[in-house]
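--- STAGE predict ---
source: upstream dedup step, 1 unique chain passed
mode: sequence only
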Amino acid sequence: MRDASFMQAPGASRLNETHDPALRSFVASANRPDGDFPIQNLPLAVFRPRRQGGFRVGAGIGDLVLDIGAIEACLAAECGPAVQACREASMKALMELGPAHWARLRLGLSRLLREGSAFRREAEPHLHPIADAEFLLPAKIGNFSDYLASMHHISKVIRVKRPDHPELPQSFVWSPIAYHSRASTVRASGYGFARPRGQAGRFENDRPLTDPTRMLDYEVELGIYVGTSNARGEPLDVDAADAAIFGYSALNDWTARDMQGWESQPLGPFQSKSFTTTVSPWVVTTEALEPYRAAMSRPDGQPAAPACLDSDANRARGMPDVRMEVLLLTERLVAAGEGPVLLGASRLTDAYWTPGQMVAHHTLNGCVLETGDLIGTGTISGPGDDACGCMFELSRGGRQPFPLPNGEERAFVQDGDTVIVRAHCQQAGRPRLGFGEAVATVLPARPQA
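--- STAGE serialize ---
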């Protein structure tokens, strides 16, 4: 009989055999302790082997991706609807099936890919190298909202912008703050984009210039995919909202800080945020993250959440303890054959609001969330100088450029720079769960027409 000690953890009633840290896969690369995709993870992506056939949903295992739609005969009949949904070039159909089907598919894949699997020979032809695959967005993003969930981030920014009056907005401690962004410019990792142009308060001959941003920045975030929608006009309580989350991806919500400062008076960000958002193509499911959740905590002196955003379960289960990293690869580093430089490391548990609270707040006024909607957590920063989630924090608004190990300096992102956002969960006695990477490169601005 299998040792059930892996169930003895906070939230253990929500754990099952797929979370057992002793599980190993017949895919050898999935058993490496430094890998991102062990059998306890099984993240999903929309992929195809390079230039071979149509895109479909696959599951990551080690350095391979399994074509789920091709292995229906290896799974229990109850997995049939989910397998059928995975033959599409989007996760939306799978999301629409709901949590019970998500769980059945995860269990079926876990049993199929374990050491000693009776269907190893049948499954192996449908495992493809991730390095040779192409990826799309997990789903066509219908709506994208971005939150401001980190007290550490907003505090650091305000100290730069208003050093004489560094008080937090009163609304922040009582409700999550967010804005609606442009879904059409969310893109999957691995592309280049032109430096955006726009007005930023610079004038020539008494007329505002429309020139390339001089303060291009990244924002280290986690993306939240809505799996099940709410009825029109019906708010979700915080527990129902948490259960509606299908999974999470690493996300970089790029920002033109100078354009943002200009256009955010009196409304909010628009062109400074809508030019591109980068996401990892991989979605780590909510169920996979269950063992890595940490109880919610607030800084001393901060009030409890209002009743509409509070519950015993939300406080006890909090949020996944996701560790975020941002790295910079410059053209000079590439030319010298050197790797990217780590700029910051932070944790989702330092956020002031949980993902469940963000989703619940989104529906509070009757707003309808739709399957496949994407929600960003906002910049994830920690209390220390090594836990900055954007360059604005690192360079004190550009006033204090910081050195890189090769002698270069940065105040903001320059042309030719590649920014890499990574995320993973790590816990003693459990395997590392990775989210893949959100990578994009800045190209020179297009000539002005």
